[in-house]
From TrEMBL:
This is Sulfotransferase. Pfam families: Sulfotransfer_3 (PF13469). It is an enzyme of class 2 (transferase). It comes from Altererythrobacter arenosus. The keyword Disulfide bond does not apply. Transmembrane segments: none annotated.
Length: 435
């Protein structure tokens, strides 16, 4: 097995080239400075769309805190503040178009979201695999990557629904993914995807300026701490309405239950269950030694794109603390959930026997797995072809030790009887005859 470097990987020359080009463009007046001011951003979105209804203005509260945190803590480079301004504009423009669609087609808000299946687990605990296995079953509805990036159709989408023109959103998503892979070739190893791949609904929470995506992208600890003390119900209410809009744009039956998943749900289970009171919950678990290291690696590979002042030790501390917080909040929220509404799935269990594990999940959901088996096998074959190289990382790269992680998260491991990945590795080696 190849050794893992003592330091996490550096960012690619492509990012430095783009950053330098933006700086040069600003010096000669070809690129405008990034304006990360709430009022300016709101006015820019209104001017771009000709619309002025943003819906529930609750989103301005997290937006204020996030912008303050970016200005005071994130230390963005030129590429970072340029992309941040574009991201805010995209989200605000989508909010305006969202309200436009609700007014134009009020039947969208009448769509039911009955008995969604929600996968809840720490980052890097196998939630993506479980989500995509279930999404391969046509009895469920799911988000696709291009819809996570651009959940809201543009004006004129009726022409797409009538088959007279193409939806541009998958094309846009493909272009964004190509640039992302240039900026970070490790993307495919960390999170394999494509425009039509099943994807989590994190983008629907970003629509309310909410969620850990911001923390994995920028150093915004003040925003993170503020969010932990807030009620996320308005963000989840908007998420539900966006799901209705996505389902309408997909032209699928509202009878089909949604498959949802994002680690953010660990932080916000009370809000999620307030908005989706009949949700069925699948909790995933994995050895925190792997979860923390992998989460820190994911955040590192994002943050280094946008800032020249990123410390791997700081990233490690942040994501150890965040993982600890996520687990504590999840465990507390579970106390109020009836046992028949939830099931636990171990990462190791899926590694060892995915079909047997999925049989158990389907039993919990009250469904026959047989009609879905061919689709799940097809997904697994495609996943093997898509994932090119293993995602390599270590706790040591981020200034952490196994002992510290065990001390802070050992009770979680014991409570849910989570197998140690080190022990599993030794067992696998013995089975192969390796000593």
């Amino acid at each position: 097995m190849a050794s893992i470097a003592a330091q996490p990987p550096a960012r690619t020359p492509f990012v430095s080239f783009v950053d330098g080009a933006i700086r040069a463009g600003r010096r000669v007046g070809l690129v405008d400075p990034a304006i990360l001011d709430k009022q300016s951003l709101l006015e820019s979105a209104v001017a771009a769309t000709g619309l002025d209804d943003f819906g529930d203005r609750w989103f301005e509260r997290p937006m204020d805190v996030l912008l303050d945190s970016i200005r005071e803590e994130a230390r963005l480079n030129a590429a970072g503040d340029f992309s941040a301004a574009k991201q805010f504009h995209h989200v605000l423009r989508d909010r305006l178009h969202t309200q436009m669609w609700f007014k134009r087609h009020p039947e969208i808000l009448e769509r039911a979201i009955a008995r969604p299946v929600v996968i809840v687990g720490p980052m890097r605990s196998g939630t993506t695999r479980l989500h995509r296995l279930l999404a391969s079953d046509r009895r469920f509805s799911h988000m696709r990557s291009f819809e996570t990036i651009s959940p809201v159709p543009r004006p004129g989408f009726e022409e797409v629904m009538a088959g007279r023109t193409r939806d541009f959103r998958p094309v846009l998503a493909s272009r964004i993914m190509k640039v992302a892979r240039l900026a970070n070739p490790r993307t495919l190893s960390i999170h394999p995807t494509g425009p039509y791949e099943p994807e989590e609904e994190l983008g629907l929470l970003v629509a309310s300026m909410w969620g850990m995506k911001h923390e994995a992208q920028w150093h915004v600890p003040s925003y993170a701490r503020w969010s932990e003390g807030e009620d996320a119900t308005p963000a989840y209410e908007h998420l539900a309405n966006l799901l209705r809009l996505v389902g309408w744009s997909q032209q699928v039956s509202s009878i089909r239950p949604w498959i949802l998943k994002t680690p953010q749900h660990m932080m916000d289970l009370p809000a999620l269950l307030k908005v989706f009171p009949d949700a069925r919950l699948i909790f995933t678990h994995r050895d925190p030694q792997a979860v923390v290291g992998s989460a820190a690696s994911l955040a590192w590979n994002q943050t280094i794109l946008y800032s020249d002042n990123v410390s791997p030790q700081r990233i490690g501390r942040e994501w150890l603390t965040k993982t600890e917080t996520m687990i504590a909040r999840m465990r507390k929220a579970r106390d109020a959930i009836p046992a028949e509404r939830m099931i636990d799935v171990q990462y190791e269990e899926m590694e060892r026997d995915w079909s047997g594990t999925m049989e158990r999940v389907y039993g919990f959901l009250g469904l026959d797995m047989e009609p879905a088996l061919a689709g799940m096998e097809s997904y697994l074959d495609q996943a093997k072809a898509l994932k090119r190289t293993p995602h390599r990382y270590s706790l040591e790269q981020f200034g952490l030790s196994q002992g510290e992680v065990s001390e802070r998260l050992g009770d979680y491991v014991r409570a849910y009887e989570i197998p140690s990945e080190a022990d599993l590795g030794h067992l696998a080696a013995r089975r192969r005859g390796v000593r």
